[in-house]
Design goal:
Layout lengths: L1 H12 L7 H14 L2 H16 L3 H13 L8 H24 L3 H15 L5 H13 L3 H12 L6 H4 L11 H15 L3 H13 L7 E2 L7 E5 L5 H22 L11 E5 L14 H11 L8 E3 L2 E7 L1 H31 L1 H39 L1
Parallel strand pairs: 2-3
Antiparallel strand pairs: 1-2, 3-5, 4-5
Helix pairs in contact: 2-3, 2-5, 3-5, 3-6, 5-6, 5-7, 6-7, 7-8, 7-10, 8-10, 8-11, 10-11, 10-12, 11-12, 12-13
């Protein structure tokens, strides 16, 4: 009777009785710190009613009801925002626990439930954690899908888009999500997905485009990497070079006629904002990328009188393009040879002939073995007689 009464009361109130939202929040945080992902998973359904109470639609309904004087009074949007921020810490803790324990599927489910229950976009720390969990399992396309879904959710208030404790005023919610997601993809070696995410961030206006147009020096391509993380800088250099090369190819009749005669100046900064003052972080990372991720390696040198920039000669880029064209030609010749063998039936004939030869050899070896065994048995019988 006690349980049935409790269930009826819970149905009427549309929330569980016994523990409060604060209790469930503390339970989630404690389970996350202890690494008990199953406890976090089992607690999420109980915290759901408290998350749904912070949905912005209730604040909009409250304004209507307060004006008309009909129905109970509801909290204001500011009050719901404060309540949401408190309970969002518990949801973030659960997703962090899923990341540590490698439960990427439950991290995705928690993000989707978060959006459905609250009608808001999750905290950027939670999204970054889910992206890291996915990137560790090399699920780059799912990272792209999640980031696209999250950044398209409109901000309920200005506090949801920008954190008050951030020192940099232009570090918005969208920029933080894009940056952390690219960092996760880059760390797992998913460079193509990282480049796609950088291109999407630039097209949506959330990330800065690296190419800087110079009026005085049009013979040199300038790439400005100020304010970027190492991973975002990597993607910026790759995407910028690819875009400029594609624009050059669109002006030529064929890919074989593509030429590159411009030097590339990459502005990395002097490291004034790095952890150790005047010890640059981007400069060595970009130089390592140019030598390790490009073949033939792209050499770089310091700009005279400017220690915050490096220069890549146009002839090195031209040599790299020439190698790419050669590799593309060899690949096309190999594919054409394979298609020719398949269409003419030569490859199938070779496969049947080789399999027939192996079968014939196996039968001969079996016959020889049986004949040797039979001769030995006959010798034994003659000796016994």
């Amino acid at each position: 009777a006690v349980f049935s009464d409790a269930g009826a009361l819970s149905t009427v109130l549309d929330r569980p009785i016994g523990l409060t939202g604060q209790d469930w929040k503390l339970l989630l945080i404690a389970a996350s710190r202890g690494g008990h992902w199953k406890v976090c998973l089992g607690t999420l359904p109980f915290i759901r009613p408290y998350v749904k109470e912070t949905h912005p639609m209730y604040a909009r309904e409250s304004s209507v009801s307060s004006i008309s004087g009909v129905g109970p009074s509801r909290p204001s949007l500011e009050r719901l925002n404060r309540k949401y921020e408190r309970i969002a810490r518990a949801l973030t803790a659960a997703i962090l626990c899923f990341e540590v324990r490698g439960q990427y599927a439950w991290a995705i489910r928690a993000i989707d439930d978060w959006i459905e229950w609250s009608g808001r976009r999750p905290r950027k720390e939670a999204v970054a954690s889910a992206c890291r969990a996915l990137a560790k399992r090399y699920r780059g396309q799912e990272v792209l899908t999640m980031v696209t879904k999250v950044v398209n959710i409109p901000a309920v208030s200005e506090s949801d888009g920008v954190d008050d404790d951030l020192e940099v005023s232009d570090y918005t919610y969208e920029k933080a999500v894009y940056t952390e997601s690219i960092n996760a993809l880059h760390k797992s070696g998913l460079y193509e997905e990282a480049d796609q995410l950088y291109a999407a961030g630039v097209s949506n206006g959330h990330l800065s485009w690296a190419v800087v147009q110079s009026v005085t020096d049009k013979k040199r391509l300038r790439l400005d990497l100020h304010g970027m993380s190492a991973a975002v800088a990597h993607s910026a250099v790759r995407v910028s070079l690819q875009k400029e090369i594609m624009e050059s190819s669109s002006q030529s009749s064929s890919d074989d006629n593509i030429t590159w005669d411009r030097d590339v100046m990459i502005i990395t900064g002097r490291g004034r904002r790095s952890g150790e003052r005047f010890r640059p972080v981007l400069r060595p990372e970009v130089q390592r990328m140019l030598t390790e991720e490009f073949y033939p390696p792209l050499g770089s040198s310091s700009m005279p009188g400017n220690m915050g920039a490096i220069l890549v000669l146009g002839k090195d880029i031209e040599a790299w393009l020439q190698h790419q064209r050669q590799q593309k030609g060899e690949c096309l010749l190999f594919v054409a040879d394979v298609l020719r063998d398949i269409s003419s039936g030569n490859r199938l004939e070779k496969a049947l002939r080789s399999s027939g030869n192996r079968l014939e050899k196996a039968l001969i070896m079996k016959f020889e073995s049986e004949r040797t065994t039979g001769a030995a048995e006959n010798d034994d019988k003659d000796q016994n007689v």
